[in-house]
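Entry 12.
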Amino acid sequence: MGKIAVIYWSGTGNTEKMAFAVAEGAKGKGGEVDIFEAAGFNASLMPAYEAFALGCPSMGAEVLEESEFQPMYDSIKNDLSDKKVVLFGSYGWGDGEWMRNWEEEVRSLGANLLSEGLIINEEPDNEGLASCKALGESLL
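Predicted 3D structure (tokens):
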């Protein structure tokens, strides 16, 4: 069983809560998990991991966060081919367009996207955290 990287950016703490619940789900199924804030991860770390949980909230006009998450993601996205990937993030407006666009891009890169992206409006409640744990479990 390979290692899992949970990489996220969070402005309000909502996506961070999701990230830790995703990690908890993977660990609960016996996964070896490392959690990174986006600024702490780069392409040189990619070979150490078999699966990736990427988390970013919707920002602005439904885009990924542009100063930390997007640059990190741009540095690793071409190495996602044939890797297991799940996506997650919180939002406060819109209809999830940022996640649909992100899913489409990840699929086009040849990643093994294991499920639809998990989006939660605002702060995750107990049901949302359970969904995050299940997402983490899906990486194994």
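Annotation: DSSP finds four helices and six strands in the chain. The two ends are 8 Å apart (CA to CA).
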